[in-house]
Structures are given as structure tokens and as C-alpha cells.
Amino acid sequence: MILSNTEMLPGKKIVKHLGLVQGSTVQSKHFGRDIMAGLKNIVGGELKGYTELLEDARNTAMYRMEEEAKILGANAVINVRFTTTSVTQGAAELLAYGSAVVVQDI
Amino acid sequence: MDFLNLIEDFEHIKEIDYRFFILGFGISILFLILGYVFGKIAEESHLKSLEKGEKEFRDILLFSSKSIPESGQLVKEPFVMGMVVISHDSFSGFIAIIRKLLGGEIKGYEKLVSRARREAILRLKKNARKQGSKAVYNLRIETSSISKGQFNSIVTVELFAYGTAIEKTPYENPA
């Protein structure tokens, strides 16, 4: 499965469009991590817990998108985009979406 | 008699409040000083590591253009990303509150966001190198704020960079 955020893939041509695929996840902050983050806010710097959390969440969203594309029989997802929406205080939805296509080497 | 007692009670409460006020004030001052000292140290060391990293990864070119040149070869997993969540120290938050009254440029936040952006791009480059890539096309950067503490003073931002990695560009990479 090729994922890309470009419209075209070099050296490949699109033979079939299979429509939009998407994957999303809603993540909330871990209580313990929140306390640690609060302490870290005094001195500043990177909040590693949150970085990991968001990275995992993004990967989950992308994985779900990929699964959807696989079901449709695609071998690539192009034009991948991300959006983040905060659903409530302390929880965010991460959405990954793109167009599922079948590509062939030229 | 009852009335006098009441007044005494009030004075008693006042005294306690006063002490708590002093204590609270002292703690906030302590946090500000801690924030200033450790924040400065952390910032300096981060800037140093950023400079070192940027030198190391200078051979990977980034493009924000949408289309990849025809001669480009995609790597095995072309979607690369880099992200970082970063917050500033309590001292620059305090300065920012005062700055907001006067308006104008808030240097502390500016530095924070630019530092975070550099770090996110650096991580993207690291991931690109892992894939054996020399160039990343269609680079996009997203910024989202995660928390805004008391008086909107604590700023935690997330910087997220992503792009499509190819093996090499038709252009020459700097050595």
C-alpha cells in the first residue's frame, strides 16, 4: 500500500479511482500524563507523553484508512490529508482521509 | 458581647488569609524563577541540538511543491511525518500576560513555535533518512494548540509536518 499526500505518483499511472477512504480515532488525555504535563509546564520543554499519544493516534487513524482502502481493493491512497478537531475539553478527534486508487507502473 | 466576638473572628480569618496570600505569592514567585532558570537552560540546549541536527540532515531536500518530477522514484513507504508537542515555561507565560495588555509582538511564543517547527521538520527528515530518501515533496506543516491554561497563559502547541519521500531529486543535493 502506497500512501502519499501528492496528487500524482511519479512513474505510476492511475487506472481506477475507488473513492474516498477515511480513518478516525478519538483520543483523550491520560490522567497521569496530564499531571506530568502540568508539572512540565512550569519549566517548559517537550511533553513526550503527548507527542507519543498523538503519534499513536495518527498512526491508528492512518491504519484504519489503509484497512478501508484494502477492502475496496486499492493499492494506493493519494492526496492524504489530516484534520484535528477537539471534540470536548481534553479529547481530540484525528481524521485521516484520501482517495483510494489502483495504480500501475507505466 | 456576641458582636465583639464576631469581629475578633473576622480578624482571625483575615490574618490567615493574609498568610495564605503571602505563601501563595511566594510559591508563584518560586515557580517563575524555576521556570526562568530551567526554561533558559532547556531552550539553550534545544537550540544547540537543533543546530547540530540541521547540519547532519542538510542533504535531505524539502519541497512544498505539489507535484513530484517524473524522474523521481518513490521509496517503499513514501508517507513520512514528524511531530512534536512542546510547551513553554511559566516565566514566559507570565511575561506574555503582561505583553497582552500592551499588545504587540510576543517574542517568547514566537521562539517557542519556531523551535517546535524546526524540531518537527528535523524529525520528518530523520524518518525520511530511515526510508533511504534524499528528498521530501509536498511538505505540509500543521499547527494546533493543545491547552490554554489560566488566563490563556500556558501554551502547548503541537507541530506536525508530513510529506511524500522520494529516493532523490533531479537537482543536486548539497554535500
List descriptors:
heterodimer; A: alpha+beta; Translation Initiation Factor IF3; four-stranded mixed sheet; 2 helices; about 35% helix; elongated; B: about 180 residues; alpha+beta; 3 helices
Please explain how this structure is put together:
The complex is a heterodimer of chains A (106) and B (175). By secondary structure, chain A is α+β, with helices and mostly antiparallel strands. Chain A has one domain (2-105): Hypothetical protein apc22750. Chain B (Translation Initiation Factor IF3, 2-Layer Sandwich). Chain A contains two helices and five strands. Chain A has helices at residues 31-43, 48-72, and strands spanning 2-3, 12-28, 45-46, 76-88, 91-105. In chain B, helix 1 (2-56) packs across helix 2 and helix 1 crosses helix 3 (107-130). Chain B is elongated and about 95 Å long. Chain B has a four-stranded mixed β-sheet. The model of chain B has no long low-confidence stretch (mean pLDDT 83). Chain B is an alpha+beta fold and 175 residues long. Chain B has helices at residues 2-56, 90-102, 107-130, and strands at residues 61-62, 74-87, 135-148, 155-166. Chain B has one domain: Translation Initiation Factor IF3 (2-Layer Sandwich). The termini of chain B are far apart. Chain B contains three helices and four strands, in the order αββααββ. Classes of the chains: A alpha+beta (106), B alpha+beta (175). At the A-B interface, strand 1, helix 1, strand 3, helix 2 and strand 4 of A face helix 1, strand 2, strand 3 and strand 4 of B.
